[in-house]
Amino acid sequence: MKLLLSLFLLFNINTVFAQQNKFSGTWEGRINVGISLRLVFEFNEDKKGGLSGILRSPDQSPKPLPIDTTYAHGDSIYVSAKRFNISFSGKLLNDTTINGVFVQGGDIPLVLTKIPVFVATKRPQTPVAPFPYESRDVEYYNGDKSIKFAGTLTYPAIEPGTNYIRQPAYPTILLITGSGAQNRDEEMFLHKPFAVIADYLTRKGFAVLRVDDRGVGKSTGKFQGATSADFANDVEAGIDFLKTRGEIDSTKIGLLGHSEGGMIAPMVASRRKDIKFIVLLAGPGVPITKLMSEQFYAVSKSGGGDETISKLGSRLFEQAVTAVHSSKDTNVMRKKIVDLLAKDYPSNKKLYDSLELNTDALRNSYASGRIKSMLEPWYYYFSGFDPTPYLTKLSCDVLALNGEKDVQVLPKSNLGGMKAALKKSRSKRYEVKEIPGLNHLFQACKKCSPQEYGELEETFSPVALQIIGEWLEKEK
User: What is the CATH number that goes with domain 20-115?
Assistant: First the structure.
């Protein structure tokens, strides 16, 4: 009996070890959190048959995340990284597939596939030192000294052995990031578009300043609660700093802004006479309410969303923004939104039922959520913004570019609005251009949805770089 029991225990222990061996190796999958992110688990078996592991999110960081707990039993596995509030539980479907749920703030379906070896995310355009130009980390303050900004200033190198009576001064471009807290490279999914742009333009003979947003990286201050108007003031601090530098030709300072940065650049240039040119990359040319309504529909459709729901969501968003900006009283705002939903319900009953907007209580809850988010300082300022008055006041040179496949700032309406406004401006030289095949980040895209941004190796289209470079040559 004792011998049988020993054999039984030995059999079960070996079975567990065998099952654990099935998990050893590298497993890869993708989660959809508005964008598509690759996750890679690496499991290793120790001498005692237990498992340890690491988690990689290679589209976000090259560094692996340590896993606290890795437990396998039979065909099931459980993993947790407490420091990051992450866990994963799954079950083997076969030798190469684990079906499970990834948890971080909410449950996200995740299917892992066994792969031979982990392949790091490739970003071949990211500039790598040594550079054929000068690169300096710089710091400066805003007017009241409340914020210290940190950035990188690049400018052409002086040929060895060359003697100058006076230090050369270069035409200069200050880069302005898009929405959200961004570092100086406007880094996203390991793409560093501002580093790529700065490298390209510095090699062309320009000085380029790129800066961490307030509260990001090495810049101080608080990002939360700031609005586009505050960010415009931050840009002005950068311009004032540049004018103190000997390497900078203060008569040839320009701005290059992407997305929200393409909204901020005209704000600044319309009130300063020392801006010679601006380059707007996917900047708004129509009121933001219209832009975001179009964006809601286009993004939904690009991700495979239902046509009817996409149109309804776009319309509901626009109605909510209008309601919020039409009153200072949240009760009035809420009533307007609820009344609109109730009025719309009879003709969209089936759809409203599926969206759980079919009772006054549910509609009130929806309205309250919308109002709360839209009254956040940045959102409220941004959603009520109209770029037209600023564009019509411009007197500097302007280059405005959009990607044909941009679903966040749609090219037809925004470039059209920009062209109409610039015709009324005092700008003597302006060009408005749509570039075929490019998305909002100016990548040559395939699916052309925001979910694809991190999947593409290209950081910034060489075609777009060439258009920018050739246009700027005339600004020297």
Answer: 2.40.128.20
